[in-house]
């Protein structure tokens, strides 16, 4: 049996080690992909720190990956060994009411998430459904393109799909890590005005201004909501994207909305969140929208936007590390060392 290197996280002992495991075998409808690059995401920290559980006894983390098709479980029209691909980090459960009726993958009622429900890509090889693959241009830089599959696609889907941001609407973005920094770029590309970026770390605020924010604010200030109103001609925000979604940020983002504004909860946190008095909330007409992930169509659109120069990923990768240094990457992200946008593993 062939073996490969993979980072294995033991959900009982909450320890992770890079070890030799069998190379997985794709079934019909699946592809074995030789991983070229895979990002380290805050939700990987959520797994490692225990607040985003995996139902498996052990799992390979990593859900933001590119690579080349190494084998197909069955001959599949349009796909060949060697094709460069981006991988959507989800698969249909195959058992829910919509899956049983044969709806496409994006309609599954209980989608399974790569690196939580099945093995991810902090490994030399990964098996994913062919339905999760997006073909990349031959000349694509697979390290840069890897960050599309979450750090760019999740804010893209949150802003275009869930918030339905229109040109000239005002937007506030809480949290300027990997997702938030790209949220600023996407809001800029779509013509939002003004764009107000919020983060307690000064370097990340400076970076947000460089990639397209009009204003950058430390949200810990007591007058944060008043300042947002001033910067939006006294109206408040049309759209708030909360990439942190902690009990401190959600009420603030809600309070900063204009009448009928939309608050999108893009972050993943274990916190209870409060919307305040119901009579005040009802009168505000605010809409609070949960958001997770993206569709394969979002990835296809982002590949086009990057390929045609509309979206610049040249600053998206802060550090590239080999697989056996994945612990260093996790620590750098957890401790904000070098205030990374994305740290990428090259297995
Ligand atoms: Zn992620
Ligand atoms: Zn399903």
Provide the fold topology.
Layout (H helix, E strand, L loop, with lengths): L2 E8 L4 E8 L7 E11 L1 H8 L8 E2 L5 E8 L11 E4 L2 E2 L5 H4 L11 E2 L11 E5 L3 E3 L6 H5 L1 H15 L8 E4 L3 H12 L5 E4 L3 H10 L3 E3 L6 H8 L5 E6 L6 H7 L1 E9 L12 H7 L2 E4 L5 H12 L9 E6 L3 H9 L7 E5 L1
Helix pairs in contact: 4-5, 4-10, 5-6
GO molecular function: metal ion binding; oxidoreductase activity
Pfam family, one: ADH_N
Cofactor: Zn(2+)
Concise synopsis of the structure shown:
With 347 residues, the chain is an alpha/beta fold. The chain has eleven helices and 18 strands. It folds into two domains: 3-147 and 316-346, Quinone Oxidoreductase, Chain A, domain 1; 151-290, NAD(P)-binding Rossmann-like Domain (Rossmann fold, 3-Layer(aba) Sandwich), CATH 3.40.50.
* Average predicted local confidence, pLDDT: 95
The CATH homologous superfamily of the largest domain is termed Medium-chain alcohol dehydrogenases, catalytic domain
**Would you count the extended β strands for me?**
18
Bound molecules: zinc ion
N- to C-terminal separation? 20 Å
CATH C-level of the largest domain: Alpha Beta
Poorly predicted ranges: none
CATH fold type of the largest domain: Quinone Oxidoreductase, Chain A, domain 1
Estimate nothing, just give the exact number of structural domains.
2
**Helix residue percentage:** 25-40%
- Beta-strand percent range: 25-35%
CATH architecture classification of the largest domain: Alpha-Beta Complex
- Our Rg estimate from Cα atoms comes to 20 Å
Order of helices and strands: EEEHEEEEHEEEHHEHEHEHEHEHEHEHE
Shape: globular
Helix count, DSSP H or I runs of 4 or more residues:
11
Sheet with most strands = 7 strands, mixed
**Category by helix and strand content:** alpha/beta
């Amino acid at each position: 049996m062939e073996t490969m290197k993979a980072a294995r996280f033991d959900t009982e002992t909450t320890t992770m080690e890079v070890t030799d495991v069998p190379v997985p075998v794709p079934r019909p409808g699946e592809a074995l992909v030789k991983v070229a690059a895979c990002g380290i995401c805050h939700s990987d920290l959520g797994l490692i720190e225990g607040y985003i559980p995996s139902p498996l006894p052990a799992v390979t983390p990593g859900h933001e990956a590119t690579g080349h098709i190494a084998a197909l479980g069955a001959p599949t029209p349009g796909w060949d060994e060697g094709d460069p691909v981006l991988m959507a980090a989800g698969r249909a459960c195959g058992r829910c009411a919509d899956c049983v009726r044969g709806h496409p993958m994006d309609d599954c009622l209980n989608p399974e998430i790569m690196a939580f429900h099945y093995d991810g890509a902090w490994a030399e090889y990964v098996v994913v459904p062919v339905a999760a693959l997006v073909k990349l241009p031959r000349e694509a830089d697979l390290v840069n393109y890897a960050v599309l599959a979450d750090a760019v696609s999740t804010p893209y889907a949150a802003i275009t799909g869930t918030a339905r941001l229109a040109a000239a609407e005002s937007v506030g973005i809480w949290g300027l890590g990997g997702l938030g920094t790209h949220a600023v770029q996407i809001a800029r590309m779509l013509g939002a005005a003004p764009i107000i970026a919020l983060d307690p770390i000064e370097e990340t605020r400076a970076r947000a201004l460089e990639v397209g924010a009009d204003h950058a604010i430390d949200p810990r200030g007591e007058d944060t909501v008043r300042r947002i109103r001033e910067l939006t001609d006294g109206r408040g925000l049309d759209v708030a994207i909360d990439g942190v979604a902690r009990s401190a940020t959600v009420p603030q983002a809600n309070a900063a909305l204009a009448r009928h504004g939309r608050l999108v909860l893009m972050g993943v946190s274990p916190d209870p969140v409060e919307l305040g008095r119901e009579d005040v909330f009802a009168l505000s007409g605010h809409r609070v929208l949960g958001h997770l992930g993206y569709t394969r169509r979002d990835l296809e659109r982002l590949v086009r936007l990057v390929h045609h120069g509309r979206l610049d990923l040249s600053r998206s990768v802060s550090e590239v590390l080999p697989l056996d240094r994945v612990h260093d990457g996790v620590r750098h992200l957890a401790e904000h060392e070098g205030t990374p946008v994305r740290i990428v593993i090259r297995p």
